[in-house]
Amino acid sequence: MAIVLWYAVAMYVERVPNRSSPPAVLLRESFRENGRVHKRTLANLSDWPADRVEALRVVLAGGRAAGPLEDAFEIVRTRPHGHVAATLGMLHQLHLDSLIAARRSPERDRVVAMIVARIIDPRSKLATARGLHGETLFSTLGEMLDVEQADEDALYEAMDWLLPRQAQIETKLANRHLTDGTLVLYDVSSTYFEGRHCPLARLGHSRDGKKDKLQIVFGLLCNAEGCPVAVEVFEGNTGDPKTLANQIQKARVRFGIERLVIVGDRGMITSARIRKDLACTEGVDWITALRAPAIRRLVEQKSLQLSLFDTKDLAEISSPLFPDERLVACMNPLLAEERSRKRAELLDATEAALDVVVAATQRPKRPLRGKDQIGLRVGRVIGRFKMAKHFRLEITDTTLRYERDENRIATEAALDGIYVVRTSIAHGLLNAEATVRAYKSLSVVERAFRSLKTVDLKVRPIHHRLADRVRAHVLLCMLAYYVEWHMRRALSPMLFDDDDKQGADLRRDSIVAPAKRSARAEWKAQTKRSPDDGSPVHSFQTLLQDLATIAKNRIRPKLADAPEFDRVTTPTALQTRAFDLLGLRLV
């Protein structure tokens, strides 16, 4: 049985001739399905008094009835509906359901339900199942997908059904959003794990500040605009560079892309990865950046001269240290100020903490003694602020002395604000400015991680114990972000998001300078209103909350033997605009 979500519904009173008998008075609704108009009878009102029938007809036509008609009905249940209609509608508009599986099945419906639930109200699988069930629901999602009876075990089974389809799903997404010779953005993040028994969970570098918890690492592959295409989960102690080879193999073999340019940060595409995975792979170019020690060597060898930035903020250079590569040196004064400020604060904080250790060695009662014990205390301080390179330390069994290494500080400060983008792409294919722009586009992947982990989809913390369940959970979150990404683009005139990228680019003096918001975005931020019609603007989440006030009400007639029926709240002008921007019709 096919599910039809988007059709126009109208309720009306119809009098049907009945030969020699009085006409039948019927409460009916008409709807459009697959391009054809259908109608069905909801109730027989033939026994109702004529004045009550007329009052009902007026109400259904949008008027206001005279008399006590409102006492003839009661609302027995209200289910938030608008946010479900918008999100599920966008998912169907993107044909994501048929991309997951060509034919509808209970498993596919449950997967779709979990994707939509992750966007509108991210919760555990148990809480998601309760939100679908008819007795404990908090939206119309369960009834719209006919998954009201799905419990948490059914959702877990659907996750197990989904994971083997991941390769096929990602290949279809790549066919939609990647082309031969395209830019591919790739970055990794980590998230923490609750429990101790998942084989993927390991202690490693925590980006969430949860150093005492096990974690997993996952890598996100996006097109040049930031649309997610693929995701992969790794063990929590996997280093960023070690994940790169898998992505190249995935793009070349599974996606069938013969030529691509992969963009990754300096911690991802390292010199070692370039030698081992990229230099020997035909058809693969790359864009990344140099680390600070490499930039320092360029300065020492005169390949990079600071006088280049006296009149401009971008210069293409070359160096025998990086043969067959193009180097684009950039100078950002605002970044230089920020790094100088941060260094000064870290130096002061380190000194304050070291003073505490010094005081501990000088206190009259139970002073800190022993070179090893003093060294351990100093190590904790240095490790916390990562300023060891800027201090000279002298530790004895009874004392600690320190001083700043002003020469090293000055040497590092001289390079503040300077970064160097490196690439294997020929100048004729991508000029210096376009190369820097491509590298800075990694910010859209960072934005995706913020949405996945904290703001919207809340991939963390992970409670699943089985490795494949963890992979399926992350895949569900990526598919949810795919839907959200398209919704944000469509709804951007109503959101605080900048919907005038061209205007923002025109306000920017150079690609090296910090990005600026467009005049439209600044207006929205200052006034909290849309420059188009003056209506309030929203964040993505508050707009979903606004749409959730569109409810589907179950109405029960108090008189006669009439069945219950549903009536959807009339949307406000703002809600109507949201559905218009999404290209959807509300039912």
How would you portray this structure in words?
The structure is a single chain. 41% of the residues lie in helices and 20% in strands. By secondary structure, the protein is an alpha+beta fold. The protein has a domain of 80 residues. It has an 8-stranded mixed β-sheet, with helices on both faces. Strands 1-2-3 form a 3-stranded antiparallel β-sheet. It has a 3-stranded antiparallel β-sheet with strand order 4-15-16. The longest helix has 30 residues. The protein is elongated, with a radius of gyration of 31 Å.
Task: Please specify the SSE layout and strand pairing.
Layout: E1 9-18, E2 21-33, E3 36-44, H1 50-60, E4 73-80, H2 82-93, H3 96-100, H4 106-120, H5 125-132, H6 141-145, H7 152-162, H8 166-177, E5 182-192, E6 215-223, E7 228-235, H9 244-254, E8 260-263, H10 271-278, E9 284-289, H11 292-300, E10 314-317, E11 326-331, H12 333-362, H13 371-385, E12 391-395, E13 400-404, H14 406-413, E14 418-423, H15 432-440, H16 443-455, H17 467-491, H18 501-506, H19 519-527, H20 540-547, E15 551-557, E16 565-568, H21 573-582
Parallel strand pairs: 5-8, 8-9
Antiparallel strand pairs: 1-2, 2-3, 4-15, 5-6, 6-7, 9-14, 10-11, 11-14, 12-13, 15-16
Helix pairs in contact: 2-4, 2-20, 2-21, 4-7, 4-17, 7-17, 12-13
